[in-house]
Amino acid sequence: MLFNSVNFLIFLPVVFILYWFVFNKKYQDQNLLILTASFYFYACWNWKFLFLLIFSIGLDFLSGIMIERSGNKKEAKFWLLISIVINLGFLGFFKYYNFFIESFSELVAGFGFHVNVWLLKIVLPVGISFYTFHGLSYVIDIYKKRIAAERNFVDYAVFVSYFPLLVAGPIERATHLLPQIQKKRTFNYEQAADGMRQILWGFFKKMVIADNCAPLVNEIFAHYQTESASSLVLGAILFAFQIYGDFSGYSDIALGVSRLFGIELLKNFAFPYFSRDIAEFWRRWHISLSSWFRDYLYIPLGGSKGGLMMKIRNTFIIFLVSGFWHGANWTFIIWGGLNALYFMPLMVLNKNRQNLEIVAMNTLLPSLKEIFQILSTFLLTCFAWIFFRAGSVSQAVLYIKNIFSTTIFSVPSHFPYKIIVLIGIMIVIEWLNRTRFHGLEIRRFNPLIRRIMYVSIVIIIFRYASFGNHEFIYFQF
After folding, report:
1. CA 366, 369, 375, 381 torsion: positive or negative?
2. Please, are residues 198 and 205 in contact by the beta-carbon 8 Å criterion?
3. Contacts of 130 (CB under 8 A, 6+ apart)
4. DSSP structural state of residue 208
């Protein structure tokens, strides 16, 4: 079930009414309702994979208990490894089996050998990367004695399968979400109203920005060999806004929906295209995944405690793994490697934490230096996005090669004036609210102006939105 579908617009009010008016006596009843709704939400995509989700939940629930009950560290590590191996085994099979087989075949072919490989028509279970990471963080935290094992199966199952975040995050932590699940929740009008504003902004970014950019991006990337260099640059820039509008739009909807039920999820985006360097960008883009890799991979590898070479090694590892997490294609690994290379000068010069404050914190406009930093960071990001979007490494290389021609100075053959204006509206609104939780958390204007802005956003959505139940990009990850 997609957030931007008629089915969801029926599903959400029904669950909301039942949650607050029928099952509101005890939070345990609300949890049971949410779990049932979450399983139904997931089954609407493919009911067969619901059993895989339930198995994953049961595996980590029991593993957590066994880790806590273990009499010694060796036994606890055994149960931890059982959970990790099975979870990553399922993830590896569904997501990476064909990639590894094809890569092995190409490798041995380079040595003059021919191997007949057996490829499978595997359907990737939606959300498997996200709910697998939920479970892994839970059992690792129990092993590290950061949390106690949960004994209530329903509560734990809600933590993993909570429908707003089930298929594309954010990646939650048990330390943050479980305490909210395990206490009585009362309806908070201000929280719900702001949740509705965040949902509205998410729909704007997804249906107006991302879905209008998508057809032109698809056209340019499909015909990159015949497009002018200026069109190729335009395609890369539009994809940057497409993936941002698509993924941050999903996150805004997820967070806003959750707030309707009195539960706060982790913030996943913090206006990343206003970043002044690549380190700041990664503190603001897909925050829940970046922090997950920091806490469960980078720090266990030694983090920044060792010498410079260890920091460089660990940084490359987390960026390459992050790229591989996104998909079974060498393009994603190169995308991760590029971001690691971007990060290196900042790390070597010890400047990777120099931009911790919000840009132009106490002024309306950024300085010329900040404008240059923002634009250069954005262009570097767009360059890396070419590999992320391309179907193969060779396509990405040729795409980039074709940019460097005299047609770079020509006007793109299909200049999207409407899309540029809509993107401009989004940038202005987010810039004015860059210190807030989301783009429509508008407090600086009086109530009448705010209402006019909300109504205007609704009108723009109905006028310019691309209707048609377009899937979110991150469903494929």
Report:
1. negative
2. no
3. 165, 166, 167, 168, 169, 171
4. I
- 196, 260 Cβ separation under 8 angstroms: yes
H helical segments located in 404-474: 417-432, 447-464
What SS3 state is found at 234?
helix
d(CA 81, CA 79): 5
Nearest CA to 356 out of 421, 279, 436, 455 is that of 279
pTM: 0.93
Contact 262, 23 (CB under 8 A): no
Six-digit token string for 309:
């070479």
Is the C-alpha dihedral spanning 133, 137, 143, 149 positive or negative? negative
- Transcribe 304-355 into DSSP letters: TSS-HHHHHHHHHHHHHHHHHHH-SSHHHHHHHHHHHHHHHHHHHTT-TTS-
What gap in Å lies between CA 32 and CA 129, rounded to an integer? 24
**Active-site position among 134, 286, 326, 470:** 326
Is 223 among the residues known to form the active site? no
- What are the structure tokens assigned to 51, written together? 């059993």
pLDDT per residue rounded down to tens, the chain (477 residues): 888 888 999 999 999 999 999 999 999 999 999 999 999 999 998 888 999 999 999 999 999 999 999 989 999 999 999 999 999 999 988 888 777 676 666 655 566 666 565 656 677 788 899 999 999 999 999 999 999 999 999 999 999 999 999 988 899 999 999 999 999 999 999 999 999 999 999 999 999 999 999 999 999 999 999 999 999 999 999 999 999 999 999 999 999 999 999 999 999 999 999 999 999 999 999 999 999 999 999 999 888 787 888 999 999 999 999 999 988 889 999 999 999 999 999 999 999 989 999 999 989 899 999 999 999 999 999 999 999 999 999 999 999 999 998 888 888 877 899 999 999 999 999 999 999 999 988 776 778 888 888 999 999 999 988 776 677 887 776
Cα 287–291–293 angle (5° rounding)?
A: 120
Per the CB < 8 A criterion, the answer to whether 423 and 209 are in contact is: yes
Taking residue 392's Cβ as centre, other Cβ atoms within 10 Å add up to 12
CA distance 203 to 472: 12
